[in-house]
Design goal:
Distance between the termini: 14 Å
Number of strands: 11
Bound molecules: iron/sulfur cluster
Strand order of the largest sheet: 7-6-5-4-3-2-1-8-9
Order of helices and strands: EHEHEHEHHEHEHEHEEEEHHHHH
Helix content: 40-55%
Number of helices: 13
Oligomer: single chain
Shape: globular
Structural class: alpha/beta
């Protein structure tokens, strides 16, 4: 029987459909079959997933975090509404191209604590280069209108822009466009790594330098590329720890429309012969030996062992590594991205020094979290428990024992 909590899983990426109303040029599984319900999650997989959500809640009194994926998850909005209502889920979100969001959906998101992670590539020129409909038609107007709705649902939602070598020179303009739309957070992610040259990274760096001025004028605007580097500079180096990369396959799994289980949404497929297939939820079991094998495969790559940037860098997406030849392969593009982002982040921190900006606020939160974790660890390691605490534990254990015997 699958017990996600016991496996350490706190987050599931769930494919609600393989269909999408866009045909982005960089999409890794574009399927322009919007009206085709055979592309949606199978009813029995949806039912099983609801059971797993309820099981997690029963075992932990907490909600499993669900990120609805696709294709475009809103193509199967009916399925999302049904799953949220049937499970009472309150910890969920979706990565969406925004085009199918409507004003009348806002109450559903608000009442059920749903959030939207917005796929939008910045200014219209940069966006329409890749995020298009079949035949190359522009999607900008629909997406900009959807962004307004996503921001009404959650004013702090993040705009996730995909950067390609051809639109990298529009990076600064894109952040301004995102701010004008009302966003206060942006994650500017580079993909298609093998096509990036030194000249492209030079442009990336120049654009980030322009963003330093922007960020000094707008100290409340969060840019993930800067924050990842800033946090790394303020975090102890982890050269001797086993890397968990982005968390895929450690605290997170993904489920495809036919119930196949994978480390994350970048791996999902209905074809179970693909690497790192981990079972199918319809059989109510995960291949634990395979999952452990996946987790134990990660080591610190040789070239990262002496790297100064190791605390900021998660060594990139494991699926990209896999395509490069193995889970521990890291692309040159990952190093270039980290090196350029960190270099400019240092300049930014000097310019922002002494001001109450978004990064120092977030760093204070991050440090407090670390300190509290450290204190808890110290307490469990060193300090003998007081009699009062011991009595509470005995009482808790007897109530829990009674509860378990009643429910088994
Ligand atoms: S919106 Fe997403 S799923 Fe659809 S084509 Fe674009 S990248 Fe692919
Ligand atoms: S920047 Fe490159 S060498 Fe350094 S930790 Fe990241 S992947 Fe490894």
């Amino acid at each position: 029987m699958i017990d996600l909590h016991r496996l350490g899983i706190r987050h599931v990426d769930l494919d609600m459909t393989n269909a999408c109303n866009f045909q982005c040029r960089y999409c890794y599984h574009s399927n322009n079959l919007v009206g085709d319900p055979s592309q949606h999650i199978l009813p029995e997989v949806k039912g099983k997933m609801e059971e797993l959500i309820m099981r997690f809640k029963k075992n932990t009194s907490k909600d499993l975090n669900i990120a609805f994926f696709g294709g475009e998850p809103m193509v199967n909005f009916k399925g999302i509404v049904s799953m949220v209502e049937r499970t009472g889920l309150r910890n969920w979100g979706m990565t969406s191209n925004l085009s199918l969001l409507r004003e009348e959906m806002i109450p559903f998101f608000r009442e059920n604590h749903g959030s939207v992670h917005c796929s939008i590539d910045g200014c219209q020129e940069a966006h329409d280069m890749y995020r298009v409909k079949a035949g190359g038609a522009s999607t900008w107007n629909e997406v900009a209108r959807g962004a307004m709705i996503a921001l009404k649902i959650n004013p702090n939602c993040t705009a996730r822009a995909t950067l390609m070598p051809n639109n990298i020179g529009l990076l600064y303009k894109s952040v301004i466009a995102l701010k004008d739309l009302g966003f206060t957070k942006a994650a500017l992610m580079t993909v298609n790594e093998e096509t990036w040259t030194k000249a492209h990274w030079d442009i990336y760096e120049q654009e980030l330098i322009k963003l330093v001025d922007f960020n000094v004028k707008n100290p409340g605007f969060y840019i993930k590329n800067f924050y990842d580097s800033i946090r790394g500079m303020n975090t102890p180096k982890t050269h001797n720890k086993q890397p968990k990369r982005c968390g895929a396959g450690f605290s997170m799994l993904a489920v495809s429309t036919n119930g196949n289980v994978w480390p994350c949404h970048r791996f999902t497929s209905t074809d179970n012969t693909k690497p790192w297939y981990l079972g199918n939820i319809l059989e109510d079991k995960i291949d634990i030996a395979k999952l452990k094998e996946y987790q134990n495969s990660f080591v610190i790559p040789e070239k990262c062992k002496s790297c100064e940037l190791i605390s900021s860098c998660n060594m990139g997406c494991p699926n990209v590594s896999l395509n490069l030849g193995g889970l521990n392969e890291v692309s040159q593009a990952q190093c270039d991205y980290m090196e350029r982002s960190s270099k400019v982040a240092k300049i930014l921190m000097k310019r922002l020094s002494g001001t109450n900006n978004i990064y120092s606020k977030m760093m204070r939160g991050h440090r407090n979290q670390h300190r509290n974790r450290g204190r808890m660890k110290q307490r469990t390691n060193n300090k003998p428990r007081s009699q009062k605490v011991k009595n509470r534990i005995v009482k808790f254990n007897s109530i829990a024992g009674e509860f378990l015997s009643r429910n088994n």
